[in-house]
Write a structure and sequence with these properties.
Subcellular location: Mitochondrion
Order of helices and strands: HHHHHH
Family: Belongs to the CMC family.
Radius of gyration: 20 Å
Organism: Scylla paramamosain (Mud crab)
Shape: elongated
Protein name: COX assembly mitochondrial protein
Structural class: mainly alpha
Pfam families: Cmc1
Number of strands: 0
Distance between the termini: 50 Å
Number of helices: 6
Largest sheet: none
Strand content: under 5%
Helix content: 55-70%
C-alpha cells in the first residue's frame, strides 16, 4: 500500500523506471490502440498493397470528389484490411509489441533511437 501523498504506478520499476521488462500484461490502450494499429500497418504494407495503391490513385485522380468517386476502392480496401485483421497470423503482432516494449523497458531506448545508434556504430 502506498503511503499517503504518494502514488504507486503499476509500470514503475525496471532498470530505467519504465516498468518490468518481463511483464507481459497489456494495458487497455496497448490492447485496443497500439496493437491494432500495428496490425493495420502490416496489412497495408504486406497484404493489401494492390488495394492501397488502387485507392491512392483514385484519390489522386479525383481530388475533392474522391468521397463520391472512390467508394468502390475504399470498400475493397476496407474488406481486405478487415480480412487480414481477423486472421490468426496477426496474433504475432501482440508478441512483436511485447518484445519491443520489453526491449524499451530494458534499455530505455525507443526502436528509432536503437536503430540510430546501430547506424552510428556502423558508419
Amino acid at each position: 500500500m502506498a503511503e499517503e501523498g504518494t502514488q504507486s504506478f503499476r509500470n514503475a520499476g525496471g532498470p530505467h523506471g519504465l516498468g518490468d521488462p518481463e511483464d507481459r500484461t497489456l494495458r487497455k490502450v496497448e490492447r485496443e490502440v497500439c496493437i491494432p494499429k500495428m496490425m493495420r500497418d502490416i496489412a497495408r504494407q504486406e497484404k493489401c498493397t494492390a488495394e492501397v495503391e488502387e485507392f491512392t490513385n483514385c484519390c489522386k485522380d479525383s481530388g475533392l470528389a474522391m468521397v463520391v468517386y472512390c467508394r468502390q476502392q475504399n470498400s475493397t480496401l476496407k474488406s481486405c484490411l478487415t480480412k487480414w485483421y481477423q486472421d490468426e497470423e496477426f496474433k504475432r503482432c501482440t508478441e512483436e509489441f511485447l518484445a519491443e516494449r520489453s526491449e524499451f523497458r530494458r534499455t530505455g531506448l525507443t526502436k528509432k533511437a536503437r536503430h540510430a545508434l546501430e547506424e552510428e556504430a556502423k558508419g
